[in-house]
Amino acid sequence: MRNLSLRTKEHMWWVGFIAPAFLIYTVIFLGPVISSFYYSMTNWNGFTKTMDFIGFSNYAHMFTDPTFMKAMRNTFVFAGLIVIFQNGLAIPLALALDSKIKTKSLLKVVFFAPAILSPLVVGYTWLYIYEPEGMLNMLLRAIGLGGWEQTWLGDPKFALYAIVVMVLWQYVGYSMIIFLANLQTIPGDLYEAADIDGAGGYRKFRYITFPLLAPSMTINVVLASIGSLKAFDIIYVTTKGGPFQATETITTLLFTTAFKKDNFGYGTSMGVIMFLIIFLISVVQILLLRRREVGES
Known about the structure:
Blueprint: H1 2-39, H2 57-62, H3 66-97, H4 104-112, H5 119-130, H6 135-142, H7 159-183, H8 188-196, H9 201-212, H10 214-229, H11 233-238, H12 250-260, H13 264-296
Helix pairs in contact: 3-7, 3-10, 4-7, 5-7, 7-10, 10-13, 12-13
């Protein structure tokens, strides 16, 4: 009985220790998330106390709304490009900085520095680069490629891809650091054995480096997916979803619908769909990539 009493006291101590943090988490995160499911089934305008419960009408309207469908398509295109190119560029950079380059310490800082900047700062900076008389068009004229000048953020054909470049510039270094940390855990004995067997650089990368980068690949793919699917700041600062909805994503449309058109119920239903999309994609990615980790180990 005495041991049971001690265990009970110990458990109560842990409960008392965790309870304040859990309460804050519930109030700040769980409460709004749960309540959003209810508000998504109402016609609440976000300000008045009156609202009508309309069931799944918002969801039914959403998937027949051409604006939302275009925003969802843009979201998936944007996220897909970010995931592919962010990791595709980060791996060779990590490999280069894992070599014996004399300036690799400086280069690590240079590539990683944009990741600590606010997306707002990055957005405003690239606005000056992309404007018609900005640095990019000036550079094109200077090297004799004036015919390539564009209104990069004002042309529906280029605007979304221009924002993809901004995000890549900011976060490729972040993914690179994660890959680099993983590279430094790979035993050198494996490469020495490969050298003895006469394996070249490609074969060493194909059969040693790439398989053993599986843990960092999981982290980077999931983080890049979540970050790009819910990206808002940099898009809203630069284009606000334009021109002609070419860069409209679920997050920008949600903001416009809820806070500018005062249709909070419909906007919240978009938020719920976005939450479910991110949740499902993240779970599938983790399951598939973890399976690859186990298979490569």
